[in-house]
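Mods, move this if it's the wrong board.
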Amino acid sequence: MSMIVHHAPQTRSTRLLWLLEELGADYAVHYVDIRRMNGQGASDPANPHPLKQVPALEVGDQLLIESALIFPFLTDRYRIANLAPTPTHPRRAEYIAWLGLYSGVVETVLASGPPEGWPPVQKAAYAELDRRWGGAIKDGGFILGQFSALDILFGSLLQWFRAAMPAGEPYDSYLERINARPALRRALEKDSPPG
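Not the wrong board. Structure tokens:
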């Protein structure tokens, strides 16, 4: 399967490189520029993403965007890597629910400004996220018990924005566990163009 990751260094697409490395996938990286939150960068006409953001993954003549949708697509194609429950596995619904939680709650709540200004419904959503995520990873665990694509998705948030979740345990040791992954090191080597 021919795949091209349209990638901007030090962005959310780095986690896609990490996933592809964990999967042992064959892929190429096309480095693009994006307009960043601080005003730097520019919209790159060579970027096929409809919003000129990242990640974007070309698979043959298909273009996929949004991590929470790209991840199950890839983990279903590379089942041998065992990074997600298969479509018929009893924990598949739980896996999909975590993906929905990430895209529908985590990104929405955390992008809405400091917690002091959150309305009660956002504070309740955050507390539930902390209860579920913290409960899943306590005692040296991972979200689904063993390392999975969910740990890449959720863990990458802590790598870039540690303050997203409460200080201390269980998040600090979780971050240490995922940062020790050899596939992450390989992905980070590809994060920026050579030279």
